[in-house]
Each structure stands twice: as structure tokens, then as C-alpha cells.
Write a structure and sequence with these properties.
about 200 residues; alpha+beta; BirA Bifunctional Protein, domain 2; nine-stranded mixed β-sheet; about 25% helix; about 25% strand; globular
Length: about 200
């Protein structure tokens, strides 16, 4: 059971559940959906994720103080997995861009999307995305290194101005909330993105 449904800004699009510990936020959301629980526009977070998962069965190293969440978004029809991946990746990329914004553009880090599910800062991974379709829902899992990172990765506050946990969560969820309205991009723009190993300035 969640430790609480958090106080959130007015008109916020998600109900936020904060759990003390879960094996995996995606697994928890999937299990509840399969039990016919309506989790439309719910976001499951936890402080301690024991078995975080990435794509292709890889594990996600869940260090203390970082963000581990799964956003559940209802799908109006048969999902297009490439469109959904692109939408989710760009939502996370825009979140990192916003939180790392610098008054001096010359000092801003290079933020890019490595297709299909990694967001990088200066070539190092800061976030990973795992999307799973369960019945008529997309479960969008995001791990975002906020204050610490494993070897060969990086964390957001290395480049940002001490962004705290909840403002980062709210920003990320607001960006993810636009996915339902943006799952159909013009084919030429999607093709441009798919053909790039690194998306640095998406034409969207």
C-alpha cells in the first residue's frame, strides 16, 4: 500500500502514490491493472526500488534520492510503439532540458535522446525509460538520476541548480501528461528521429 497520496498542485493531471518500497514501480502498476484496478493517470513512485528494470531484461540501478516512477496513461486505441517511445523519450528530454536550463547558453550541457529509451547529458546516461502496454494502458517507467549515479552514468544535479525531488517529479509528470495528445507525429518527423542514433535537436 502507498505511504500516502501526496499533496500536489491544483489541476495536476496525475494522482501521485508515494510508496516506501517496491520491487519495481512498473511491475506494481501492471499487477494492479491486471486485477482490473483503474489506474488512469496515476503515478506510482517509491523511495526504495529493489528490482528496477530496463529494456531487454536489464536492471536499473536505483540509488537513494533518485526518481523511480511509473505513469499510467490510458490509450484510446491500438498503440503505435514507435510513436509512444518517441513521445515518452521527448517528454523526459524536455524535462531534463528545463531543469538544466542555464542563463548562459554557452554553459548549458548537451542533452540528447539516444533512441529509443535513454536520455544523456554530455554523452552520459541520466535517465532510462521502460514502456509496457497492459490491456488499454501504457505504463511508462522512468528512472531519473537526480542526485547520484552508478559508474559510467551521470546525475541531473551535477548540472542543475540543486533541483529538489518533488519539483523534478512534478515537471516530469507534466511533460508526460502531454503524451496522450501527441502519439501521432507526422511520418517524416518520426522517420527523421528513428534514423538518428542520437537525437540532439528533434524537429518537433
Amino acid at each position: 500500500m502507498p505511504t500516502g497520496i501526496c499533496s500536489i498542485p491544483a489541476m495536476f493531471p496525475f494522482v501521485i502514490e508515494m510508496h516506501e518500497q517496491l520491487d519495481s514501480t512498473n511491475s506494481a502498476a501492471k499487477q494492479r491493472i491486471l486485477k482490473q484496478e483503474d489506474l488512469s493517470y496515476h503515478a506510482l513512485l517509491c523511495r526504495d526500488q529493489k528490482k528496477g528494470r530496463g529494456t531487454k531484461g536489464r536492471s536499473w540501478v536505483s540509488l537513494d534520492g533518485n526518481i523511480f516512477l511509473s505513469a499510467v496513461i490510458p490509450l484510446p486505441g491500438v498503440p503505435d510503439s514507435e510513436q509512444l517511445s518517441l513521445s515518452s523519450g521527448l517528454a523526459v528530454l524536455r524535462t531534463v532540458e528545463l531543469l538544466c536550463s542555464a542563463p548562459d547558453i554557452s554553459a548549458a550541457p548537451q542533452i540528447s535522446l539516444k533512441w529509443p529509451n535513454d536520455v544523456l547529458i554530455n554523452g552520459e546516461k541520466v535517465s532510462g525509460i521502460l514502456i509496457e502496454i497492459v490491456e488499454s494502458f501504457a505504463v511508462i517507467g522512468v528512472g531519473l538520476n537526480l542526485v547520484d549515479a552508478p559508474p559510467l552514468a551521470t546525475y541531473l544535479n551535477k548540472y542543475a541548480n540543486n533541483v529538489s525531488f518533488w519539483p523534478a517529479v512534478y515537471t516530469l509528470l507534466l511533460k508526460l501528461s502531454t503524451i496522450a495528445a501527441k502519439t501521432r507525429y507526422p511520418a517524416e518527423k518520426l522517420e527523421w528521429c528513428v534514423n538518428k542514433k542520437n537525437i540532439q535537436t528533434p524537429p518537433i
